[in-house]
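Batch job 17 of 40 flagged for manual review because the log was empty.
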Amino acid sequence: MTTITPQILLKAYASGVFPMAESADDNALYWIEPEFRGLIPLDGFKVSRSLRKACRRQMFEVRVDTAFADVIERCAERAPDRKTTWINDRILALYNQLFKMGFCHSVECWQDDELVGGLYGVRIGAAFFGESMFTRRRDASKVALVHLVARLRFGCFKLLDAQFINDHLKQFGALELPRAEYHQLLEDALGKDADFQAFDGDRDPERVLELALAP
């Protein structure tokens, strides 16, 4: 079995490649480079009226990087609408190492001190590579995504990679770009600085929405 280190993983992301497993039960990893890449445009993010109301109601306390291991483990869990996932033990170990190195982050939704939704991803330069999300309460993962976009915009990020798009992500304005076009955006983002920790306004829903929806 080929040894994949956190350093190799970072080089792969910087080259437009990312790993996946066939299933959580398969310990092998495969390098993926889609012909068409999914992106969530930071300057064209869409939030429905109902989701705006959910953000304003502050049903969740949004925290960042306080429970990364728990977030990725919940993303790996099977659910009634998801019989299997691509997150296996090797991925769990590698991304937890990247988190300790400062290259992975989680955005978490808490309710009564219970982790009920969130997402995680990889950060290199001004690029954020979204990996997976989970929800145990209605709108929890969506609220986490809104807060992520606000944080990325405030921190001067240039690229939010979604790998593949689906109907769920399309509602936020996700789109596909040909591989060559994606590589141009990626190269530009990797050459710039960004600060994931600069934003401290997660308790202010109006500020979050203002940032997330800014043209």
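Reviewer: the log was empty due to a logging misconfiguration, but the result itself is present. The first helix runs from residue 6 to 14. Unflagging and moving on to job 18.
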